[in-house]
From TrEMBL, chains A, B:
Keyword Repressor: yes
Lineage: Bacteria, Bacillati, Actinomycetota, Actinomycetes, Kitasatosporales
Organism: Streptomyces shenzhenensis
Domain HTH lacI-type: start-end pairs: 8-62
This protein's UniProt keywords: DNA-binding, Repressor, Transcription, Transcription regulation
PROSITE patterns listed in its UniProt record: HTH_LACI_2
UniProt-recorded name of the protein: LacI family transcriptional regulator
DNA sequence: TCACGTTTGTGGAACGTTCCCAAAGTGAAA
DNA sequence: TTTCACTTTGGGAACGTTCCACAAACGTGA
C-alpha cells in the first residue's frame, strides 16, 4: 500500500463549512439537533470533499461493530453455501454485516481456535456456527464469550440457541416412504454420529425406523463421497436389496453416477433417496427423491434469534425445529417382482 | 445489546504485568524489542485476562484494515457463489479479509451506490467486482477511488484490471464442436450484450462462428431461465433444427427439463450445450457438454492482481485471459438421419 | 426588564491501539 | 573511569469519531 491520499475527515468538513466538528458529527450521524441552514452548509461541504463516514472510528467509540461472525467449517458444501447466503441477506435486513471465518478446511483444533480468535479481534458482536462437523462441546466455550446461535444442525445443549430442521423427522419420513412402497431389504449409507452432527442422526433415524417396521437393513459406512464406487459394489453383492438410502443429495448423486456406470436401472432395480434439497442437485432432470430442508428459513430464523439475543431478550424458542418436506421424485418406486 | 462486560485492553494487561502499555503493545504486535523476562510476564498476564487484540483500534491508527470489498450483484448464481469462495480463500492466504456487498438484488442505481458507500465506510482497501450485470462505465468511478479488479468477466477498459476466461474462445469452441458433429441448423438462446457482460458476448460468439461456417442459426432471446418452456416450444416449431446452444449450465438444465417433459430425446433428436462448468450442475449423471471456466483460478489470480496493486506494483498483465476447457458429455451427438 | 427554558453551537475527553522520542540501563571499548 | 553504542522501557501524541458539559443566542411569559 503506497501513499494514497487520506480520506477527508469530519474536521476537514467542519473547516470548509466553517463550523465545529461536533456539528458535522451530528449531521452525519443524525443525532442531536442542528440548525437547518447549518445542516445544509455541512452537507454541501461533505459532498464537495467526498466525505464518507469512517465506520472504523465510529465502531471504536461506540463499542459496536454491527458485525456478526459466521463460523463455517465445511463451507464448500452447497448446503452451507446456501445457508451462508441466507444468513447474509437476513443480517443485512437487520443492519448487520457478516464476516465469515473458516477453519481453512483443516481438521486441527488450533485451526478453529485461530478462526475464533480472528473473529474476536474484529469484535464481532455475536456468532453463528454453521458446521455439521464441529462437536457441541467445542461450541460451548464460544457461547461463553459471545451470544451464539447454531444454525442448520440439531443442538440440544441447554446453554446454546439453535435453529434447525429435525433430522429424526426427515430420516423417518424417507424410511416410511420406502416402507410404504414395499421395500423390506434396504441399504443405508451411514455416517457415524461422532463424525457429523447432522449426517449421523439422520442415518441413525433411517436405520432405526426401518428396523422397527420389520425391514432388514444393511449398513454401509460411507462418510466420503469418493467411496461411492465401493458402496455400489457392496450393495450389488446383496441381490435381495431393493433400495439405498444416503445421507445427503450429494451422496445420492455420487451413488447414482456409480450405478449408471454399472448399468443398474434406477428406480426399477434399486430405489435411491437423498437428503437436504439443494436446489441445483434436485433438478427435475434427475428427479431425486429426498427430504427438503427449508434452508432459507433456517438462515433467517437463526439471524432473527441472534438479533433478539443481542437486544438482550431471550428468543422465544430456545431450540427451533423447522418443518421439512418429503419430495418424491423418480428415483424411488416399488421393488421389482 | 445490553451491558456485556468490556473486553480487557492493553492497559489492563499492562497493569497486571506491572509494565507500561507500550511494552504490552510491542509484545502483542511483535514490533520493537522487549526483554525476554518481561515478554513472558506480559504474555502470562494477557492469557490470564483473556486479552485479544482489538483489530478496530489497530485499524484506526494504522490506517489499514486488511479488508477488501467484493461487490457482487448476482450473488445467488452458482458461478458467482463459487467465485466468491475462491476469492475468500485466496485473500485469506494473503492476509486479507473479504467483506461482501450486494446490490440486494434490486436493479436501481441508488442501490449499487449504497453498497459502494458501505464498503467505503468500512475503509476496504480495494475492490473486487464480480457481476455479469454491472456495465463497465459504472465500474470506472469505483476504480477512481480504490484499486479495483474485475473478476470473471471480460473487461477492456484501459483503467481497470481484470481476470477472466475469454468468452469468444468458449463460444467458438462449443460452436466448433457442434459443427464438427455435422449440425447445420442450430438454435442459440441469446442474451443481449447490453443485459449481461458475460452471457452476451458468449452467445454472440456462438452465433458468429456458426454463421461464418455456413450453419443456419435461429436466435431465441432468452435472458430468463423461467421462459425455458417457450424456448423448447420455439425450437420444436422448427423441425430442421438439430441442436440448441445455451448461455450457461443453468439455462441448459432448464431447457433439458422442458425437453424431458415433452419427451424429446437428447442427444438423439436434439443436442444441447451449456457453459461455465458449475460442479454440481455438470455431474456425469447428466453429462452436459459445456465449456468449463477455471473459476478457482480466476478467483485466486484476481486476488493476486489486487494484492500487487495494493503493493503499488502494476500487475504484469493488465487483462488476464485464462484458458477454459471444452468438456464433451452425452448431451451432444451427430444429428439424426 | 428579568428570569427561565429551548435550541444551537463549541471544546474537550474518551475509545484502544501504534509510533516516536526521550530516559534509563547495560556492557564493551578506550 | 569515561564514553559510546545499543537495548529496554515509559510517556504522550495521534488516529476519527461520539458524547457530554457548557456557553451563547433567542424567544416568551410574568
Amino acid at each position: 500500500m503506497t501513499d494514497r491520499p487520506r480520506n477527508p475527515t469530519i474536521i476537514d468538513v467542519a473547516r470548509l463549512a466553517g463550523v465545529s466538528k461536533s456539528v458535522v458529527s451530528r449531521v452525519v450521524s443524525g443525532r442531536g439537533s442542528v440548525g437547518e441552514e447549518t445542516r445544509r452548509r455541512v452537507l454541501r461541504a461533505a459532498e464537495e470533499l467526498g466525505y464518507v463516514v469512517n465506520a472504523v472510528a465510529r465502531a471504536m467509540v461506540a463499542h459496536r461493530t454491527y458485525t456478526v461472525g459466521a463460523f463455517v467449517r465445511d463451507a464448500a458444501t452447497p448446503f452451507y453455501g446456501h445457508l451462508l447466503t441466507a444468513l447474509q441477506e437476513r443480517a443485512a435486513f437487520h443492519g448487520y454485516r457478516v464476516v465469515t471465518a473458516t477453519g481453512s478446511g483443516g481438521f486441527e483444533v488450533s485451526d478453529e481456535y485461530r478462526a475464533l480468535e480472528t473473529l474476536a479481534m474484529l469484535r464481532v458482536e455475536a456468532l453463528i456456527v454453521c458446521s455439521g462437523l464441529l462437536p457441541s462441546e467445542q461450541i460451548v466455550p464460544f457461547a461463553a464469550r459471545l451470544p451464539t446461535v447454531v444454525a442448520g444442525r440439531p443442538e440440544t445443549h441447554p446453554s446454546i440457541t439453535s435453529v434447525y430442521c429435525d433430522e429424526d423427522e426427515g430420516g423417518t419420513a424417507l424410511a416410511g416412504h420406502l416402507l410404504g412402497l414395499g421395500h423390506r431389504e434396504i441399504a443405508v449409507i451411514t455416517v457415524a454420529a461422532s463424525s457429523s452432527v447432522t449426517l449421523g442422526p439422520r442415518t441413525a433415524a433411517m436405520t432405526r425406523h426401518l428396523r422397527e417396521h420389520g425391514a432388514r437393513v444393511l449398513e454401509i459406512p460411507g462418510p466420503h463421497r469418493e467411496t461411492a464406487g465401493a458402496w455400489a459394489t457392496e450393495v450389488l453383492r446383496h441381490p435381495e436389496i431393493t433400495a439405498v438410502m444416503t445421507p445427503s443429495d450429494r451422496h445420492a448423486i455420487a451413488l447414482l453416477e456409480q450405478l449408471r456406470l454399472r448399468d443398474v436401472a434406477v428406480p426399477e432395480r434399486l430405489s435411491v433417496t437423498g437428503y437436504d434439497g439443494i436446489g441445483d442437485l434436485t433438478t427435475p432432470l434427475i428427479g431425486l427423491t429426498h427430504w427438503r430442508q427449508p434452508i432459507d428459513l433456517i438462515g433467517s430464523r437463526a439471524v432473527d434469534a441472534l438479533v433478539r439475543l443481542l437486544d438482550g431478550e431471550q428468543p422465544p424458542d430456545h431450540h427451533q425445529a423447522l418443518p421439512g418436506t418429503l419430495v418424491i421424485g423418480r428415483t424411488t418406486a416399488p421393488p421389482a417382482g
